[in-house]
Amino acid sequence: MIECKNLNKTYQNGDVQTVALKDVSFYIEKGEFVAIIGPSGSGKSTLMHILGALDIPTSGSYFLDGKEVSELEDDELSELRREKIGFVFQAFNLLPRTTVLRNVILPLLYSDISDNERVERAKTCLAYAGMEESKFYNLSNQLSGGQMQRVAIARSLINNPAIILADEPTGNLDTKTSQVVMKAFQELNEKGHTIILITHEQEIAAFAQRVISIRDGVIESDINNIKK
């Protein structure tokens, strides 16, 4: 599904060059659960932006479903992000004074489907993410951190993406809630979703089937885990 070949990324600020990625290459197959782990400044966020089609490499190639992403036009990139990638972020990025259901429906506002179908699809995704039905009409700012992250996961599923890209999804959660959220990702993976997790925590990366470690823009290791 994903193929990265000799990815390099250099940022230029005046006369100062910062090398974020150096000849990064790997494959991710459909249905894998992969954690990309590294300390602050390792290049993992830059790599996430490239995998999410939010940025392009300085050199090298990134193929998603056989298409080289850096060769796509802006409108094609927008379509790819909308149809192929579901994003889950550390900060949840929910509208605080909007209901749970409405937050999940938001990515469908410009789609050619009926209001009833939007609602039913959102309810299905919320149930899929393990959200209690009694919370569907609560405002998002009335939820716990773990519940907000489940809403964010449901929203990432609404367009049935090929990939769920989770950027530090447990960064704002306590240990117990983090484990609950990570088990939700495991369950989604068991149902066939490809999941790429960005984290700096070893205990969170351990929930994945495979762990790619990156430091100073270089892949240090690529190890298959025993699935928990």
Q: What labels describe this entry?
A:
228 residues; alpha/beta; Rossmann fold; four-stranded antiparallel β-sheet; 29% strand; globular
Give an account of the 3D structure.
Helices cover 32% and strands 29% of the residues. The chain has helices spanning 44-51, 74-84, 100-105, 115-128, 145-157, 175-190, 202-205, and strands at 2-13, 16-28, 33-37, 59-64, 67-68, 85-89, 163-167, 194-199, 210-215, 218-224. Helix 4 (115-128) packs across helix 5 (145-157) and helix 5 packs parallel to helix 6. The mean pLDDT is 92. Strand 1 (2-13) and strand 2 form a beta hairpin. It has a 6-stranded mixed β-sheet with strand order 6-7-8-3-9-10, with helices on both faces. The chain is an alpha/beta fold and 228 residues long. The protein has one domain: P-loop containing nucleotide triphosphate hydrolases (Rossmann fold).
